[in-house]
Specification:
Blueprint lengths: L1 H27 L8 H11 L6 H12 L4 H22 L9 E2 L2 E2 L1 H4 L2 H21 L6 H15 L4 H11 L6 H11 L1 H13 L6 H24 L2 H4 L5 H4 L5 H24 L8 H12 L3
C-alpha cells in the first residue's frame, strides 16, 4: 500500500509539472496572431501537446531540491524543452533521419514543409536563449550567465550538435561501448545533464552530486531508448520504431544485445541513486525520475 501511495504521489507530481510546463510553453511561444503566422503556428505544433517532458521534470526536481523559485524554474524548464523540441524537428528532416512520425503526429517537415521545419528549429533554439536572458535572476547576474553558458555548451558542438555529427559519421560502422558513450554523452546526455544543472542554478551553484546524477541519468535515457527502439511498436513509442537498425546506426542493443543494454541501464540507475545518497529525502523526486527513465515502456 505504501509503495502504491508513493507511485500515485509521483504520478500526480509529474502530471502537475507537465501541465505547468505546457502552460508556460504556450505563454512563451508567439501566437499565430503575430506575423509570420505560419512559422509561429508551426513552432507551437512542434513544441506543444506532446512528449514525456523528462527534461523539464528534471529541472523542477533539481530546483525543488535546492529551494528554487518555481516561476524561475518555469523559465529554465521551457528553455531546455525548446532546445529539445528544435533538435527533434531538425533530426526528423530528410537530410538527417527523414522521419514522418514524432510524438504521435506527423513531423513538422511533413505537416508543413522542409523550409518551414528548418526555420522552426532555428526559431525555437533562439527563443530558448531569449527566455533565459530576459528573465533576470535578482541579484545574481553571474548565475544567469552560467545558465546561458550551460545551455549553450549542451546544445552546441561539444554537446548535442556534436553528438549528432558523430552519430551521422558512425552510420554503418560498429562502435565499442566506450565509443558509444562518447557519442551519447553528447547527443542525448548533455541536454539532460543541463536540465538538472539549470534547475539547481536557479537557486545557486549546482552541487557536485547533482552533476554526477545527471551524467548517469542522461546516458541511461539513451540506453533505454535503444532498447525500446528495438522492442516496442511505433504506435506505443509515438515515433518510428526500429529505424536505427534499418539505417545501420550503432546502438547499445547492437553492441551489447537487449539483455546487456538493460543491465547497463540498471547499473546507471544504481549509480544515479548512489550519487544522491548524501542528499536524503530532498532528492526523492530525482530518484523517482531515475527509476522512471530506466523502467519506462515508451
Amino acid at each position: 500500500m505504501l509503495a502504491s501511495a508513493t507511485e500515485a504521489d509521483f504520478a500526480a507530481w509529474m502530471g502537475s509539472i507537465r501541465a505547468r510546463i505546457e502552460d508556460a510553453l504556450a505563454r512563451s511561444l508567439p501566437g499565430p496572431q503575430h506575423a509570420p503566422a505560419r512559422l509561429h503556428q508551426a513552432m507551437r505544433y512542434a513544441a506543444l501537446d506532446g512528449g514525456k517532458r523528462v527534461r523539464p521534470l528534471l529541472t523542477f526536481a533539481a530546483g525543488e531540491l535546492v529551494g528554487a523559485d518555481p516561476a524561475r524554474l518555469d523559465i529554465a524548464a521551457c528553455a531546455v524543452e525548446l532546445i529539445h523540441s528544435y533538435s527533434l524537428v531538425h533530426d526528423d528532416m530528410p537530410c538527417i533521419d527523414n522521419d514522418v512520425l514524432r510524438r504521435g503526429k506527423r513531423t513538422v517537415h511533413v505537416e508543413y514543409d522542409e523550409a518551414t521545419a528548418l526555420l522552426v528549429g532555428d526559431a525555437l533554439q533562439t527563443l530558448a536563449f531569449q527566455l533565459l536572458a530576459e528573465h533576470p535572476l535578482p541579484g545574481n547576474a553571474g548565475a544567469q550567465l552560467e545558465m546561458l553558458r550551460t545551455l549553450a555548451i549542451a546544445a552546441g558542438s561539444r554537446g548535442m550538435a556534436g553528438g549528432q555529427a558523430i552519430d551521422l559519421e558512425a552510420t554503418g560502422k560498429t562502435l565499442s561501448q566506450t565509443e558509444l558513450e562518447f557519442m551519447h554523452v553528447r547527443k542525448t546526455g548533455a541536454l539532460i545533464s543541463a536540465a538538472v544543472k539549470l534547475g539547481a542554478l536557479c537557486a545557486g551553484p549546482c552541487p557536485v552530486a547533482l552533476e554526477q546524477y545527471a551524467n548517469r541519468v542522461g546516458l541511461a535515457f539513451q540506453v533505454v531508448d535503444d532498447v525500446l527502439d528495438a522492442e516496442v511498436s511505433s504506435a506505443t513509442l509515438g515515433k518510428t520504431a526500429g529505424k536505427d537498425s534499418k539505417q545501420g546506426k550503432p546502438t547499445y542493443v547492437s553492441a551489447m544485445g537487449v539483455a546487456g543494454a538493460r543491465r547497463f541501464a540498471e547499473e546507471l540507475r544504481g549509480g544515479a541513486h548512489a550519487a544522491l545518497a548524501t542528499l536524503g529525502e530532498r532528492a526523492q523526486r530525482l530518484r523517482q525520475l531515475a527509476d522512471f527513465v530506466v523502467l519506462r515502456k515508451f
